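JOB MANIFEST
job_type = single_chain_structure
chain_count = 1
residues = 95
[input]
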Amino acid sequence: MSDYTPQNRQSSDLMEYPCDFPLKVFGHNDAGFEQLVLELVRPHCAEDTEFTVTRNHSSKGKYQSLTIRFTAHSRQQLDAIYQSLADCEQVVMSL
């Protein structure tokens, strides 16, 4: 019998830190969206963190997606970033 439970799954992490992390964020195609997202992510990162951002727009131009690559240092850091993004009305989804 396995001792697997959802709690065990949440406490284990398959990633090894630090690691290069591709954060994907989707929102409406507004001019300030990239700056807004970076302002939400930066407080959870070291001052010297470098971000690489790539942008794509939906076929009809209503939405944009950002892929922000940076060095992640812990699961707690990523959880805090995702919570900040989830709390923002301009963010439609993040992966």
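[summary]
The two ends are 33 Å apart (CA to CA).
Strands lie at 19-28, 52-57, 63-72, 91-94.
exit_status = 0
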